[in-house]
Amino acid sequence: MRKSFLALAACSFVCLFSMKASASANFVYHEQTNNFVATPQCNDGSTNTSCGRYVENTDRSGAAGFQIFSPETYTLHFKVEFQFFTNQTRVYYTTDGSNPCGSFGAVGNVTQPNNTPCGVSNTTQVAVASYTCTYADQTQSCQVVDVITATIPPQLAGTTVKYIVSAWHSGGGPEIFGNSGTCNGCFQASNSSDATVFQYNVLAPPSTPLIISEFRLRGPNGPDDEFVEIYNNGNTDVTVNAFDGSAGFALAASDGVARFTIPNGTVIPARGHYLGTNSTGYSYGSYPSAALTGGGAAASSLPTAASTAAEIRRATPVRAPVQRDSVAALKGGRGTGIVKPLEPRPDDVTPGPLAATGDATWTTGIADNAGIALFNTANPANFTLANRLDAVGSNVEANTLYKENTGYPALTATSANYSFYRSMCSYVDNVGCTTPGLPKDSGDNASDFLFVHPSGTDLGAGKRIGAPGPENLSSPIQRNALFGFALLDNTQVASLSPNRGRSLTSDPSNSSTLGTMTLRKRVTNNTASNVTRLRFRVIELTTFPSAAGFADLRVRNSSTEVVTGINDPATCPGGITPCAVTVQGLTLEEASAPGNQPNGGGYNSSLSVSLLTPLAPNASINVEFLLGVQATGKFRFFINVESLP
User: Which end of the chain lies in a sparser environment, N or C, as judged by fewer CB atoms within 10 Å?
Assistant: First the structure.
């Protein structure tokens, strides 16, 4: 309610009107796309900073007209200039495409002051507006002006909303409707049928392919050793833009409290990640999010080879198993290659310059087995199913908003180095990877997420050797389709040297009780850019606990070697055969945290390549995977390729 009397402003009036027995608004003004007040100032230099800046909802589309997203609340602001004061303001609106009609806040079959009825079929609704601030408008010869704020409730996608705005005083005088004139000589609309009709269209929010891809709610550093990784499960960049004008996209726990917000304007690249961590306990920040530098031959010294059509076909969305065969107690094949080791790879790993630190942090821990959800808003009032992008929770989480289906199996509260991550393969016999290198998202947390632990310990969600692998905005990105994989020597079958090697030397301390198996590949950069970081992430393998007839393999560091007797012109420099080539060793990436990977790598483990110089477009690098053998039998070994840029 406006005060019954308004004192003169600090500046003098030069646009006075004669006094009347009844008060009324002098002028009502609204501009849909550029309606704001920016620190209004009077002639004497004083300002009304309380008015601040008011901006309409952002236009959500480049199409003609003004658009917002469903279920967004439409907020509008308009100005009322007045002779003495007003105490009533309204927004009349329709949602069926008809023009709004009303009089002094009444709608339906009412009659306007010009004796024109609104009609029995009138569908106008009314929103009561409120006074936000008062200032003296220097642009209107220092007229006293009120800023009025109103909202129109959320509407369904596909709706066209039309509205008009007005102000009056309950003690008498006309109701003045907004139009597009100015104070001096403007047409004062005193009937809703003469008002300027504004409108906007309500759009369905665009699909946002952000999902929760990996998380843990406890770690070796205790209950606050937490992280949540967000993944862009799409082939185009995502720019965060909250539909309701809030700060961004929020990750909240089932207590309804946001733990971190991805700010508006943040660009998450296609297949890229965003990482939130609990700053009071997160212990995995030294996990290398990029390849390491050091030992081995420079990439530029390795032979280059243009991709053949066959190699391009092998650059499938999943690195078809690096090998799918059987591990037997063999001494080797018939190949003629001779392997000469170079310097060994170090067992201790120093993080690269782009370690997996949090892009955002929080301090209030998330309860064990609680659900978490990502919303396309940072406003807790809008944490609803319609605004949820993804959710993960356990089977003991009662709030279904924070899990999908019945949830993953609840864990025993143990401070261990585990994580849940989305399956990147979901291997099925006689079918292969059902999600070829991409995260599984079937809407069932129990089916989509795999529990991994460095020792394969069962904390309630099954046994599987593996490791956490949190990734952030700076981490290498999955680019399977842009890298070609070929045998080191295509003149030999995959199971023979130098493509595959088998040592029976027992090395129990390195999870190789029954020896090791070596797999060598030529990897070609088919991107259009220099590759500065290159690593391989294990997405499927046979490991502990292995089923009867299947091998138990553990991923290990390998050494850079010179392999001779290569007869493949695509591998040999200049195509001259036979030749000797350098094969780069790989380093199992770990973090300086308790209980990393003492039993070798498994699911979700990553291996880095040392690139002393960038790998140029069409250039190739030879790499060696070393697997410890704990049990012989049939095996699978699938990887994703991750790189920068």
Answer: N
In sequence order, which residues have a C-beta less than 8 Å from that of residue 515 and are 6 or more positions away? 502, 503, 504, 505, 506, 507, 629
| DSSP H or E run through 313 | helix 309-314
Structure confidence at residue 119 as a pLDDT band (50, 70, 90): very high
Within 13 Å of residue 414, how many CA atoms lie on the same side as its CB?
Answer: 13
Q: Which residue has the higher pLDDT, 193 or 329?
A: 193
Nearest residue to 420 (alpha-carbon basis) of 440, 399, 398, 396? 440
Contact 243, 208 (CB under 8 A): no
* Residue 513 neighbours by CB under 8 Å, 6+ apart: 506, 507, 628, 629, 630
Let me know: does 118 contact 102? Beta carbons within 8 Å.
yes
Entry field: residues in the chain? 645
What DSSP assignment string belongs to 496-517?
STTTEEEE---BGGGTBTT-EE
The answer to whether 372 and 215 have CB atoms below 8 angstroms apart is: yes
Distance (Å, whole) CA 592 – CA 19: 80
Q: What's the start-to-end Cα distance of the chain, in Å?
A: 59
Residue type, 429: D
pLDDT band at residue 237 under the 50/70/90 scheme? very high
Determine the residue type at 238. V
Give the DSSP H or E segment for 312: helix 309-314
Which is nearest to 380 in space by CA: 251, 230, 263, 279?
251
Distance CA 263, CA 267 (A): 9
The C-alpha atoms of residue 420 and residue 114 are separated, in whole angstroms, by 69
Q: Is the backbone peptide bond immediately before 351 cis, with ω within 30 degrees of 0? A: no
Return contacts of 361-365, CB within 8 angstroms, 24+ apart.
Answer: 361/260, 361/276, 361/277, 361/278, 361/279, 361/282, 362/259, 362/260, 362/276, 362/277, 362/278, 362/279, 363/278, 363/279, 363/280, 364/257, 364/259, 365/223, 365/224, 365/226, 365/278, 365/280, 365/281
Phi, psi of 224 (to 5 degrees): -95, 5
φ/ψ (deg, to 5) at 518: -115, 135
Q: Which two tokens stand for residue 350?
A: 């120093």
Phi, psi of 49 (to 5 degrees): -70, -15
What one-letter code names the amino acid at 454?
Answer: P
